[in-house]
């Protein structure tokens, strides 16, 4: 699995754990994130 950013469910949202590795639109009004949902046995650091 090459996507290192992990989304951990927390109440009504997801908390993201990972690293930002590029930004092509530094003055944009929105952002996109690619993440995978953490498995039950996975611990985010």
Q: Overview of this structure, please?
A:
Helices cover 0% and strands 27% of the residues. With 45 residues, the chain is mainly β. A 3-stranded mixed β-sheet has the order 2-1-3, with no helix packed on it. The protein is built from no helices and 3 strands.
Order of helices and strands: EEE
Q: What's the overall geometry?
A: flat
Tell me the number of strands.
Answer: 3
Strand content: 25-35%
Helix content: under 10%
Average pLDDT taken over every residue: 79
Assembly form of the protein: single chain
Derived from helix and strand composition plus strand pairing, the structural class reads mainly beta
What is shown here, in short?
The protein contains no helices and three strands.
Blueprint of the fold:
Elements: E1 6-10, E2 13-17, E3 36-37
Parallel strand pairs: 1-3
Antiparallel strand pairs: 1-2
List keywords for this structure.
Acyl-CoA_dehydrogenase-like; mainly beta; three-stranded mixed β-sheet; 45 residues; AcylCoA_DH/oxidase_NM_dom_sf; acyl-CoA dehydrogenase activity
């Amino acid at each position: 699995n090459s996507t290192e950013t992990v989304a951990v469910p927390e109440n009504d949202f997801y908390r993201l754990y990972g690293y930002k590795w590029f930004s092509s639109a530094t003055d944009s009004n929105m952002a996109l994130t690619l993440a995978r949902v953490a498995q039950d046995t996975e611990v985010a650091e």
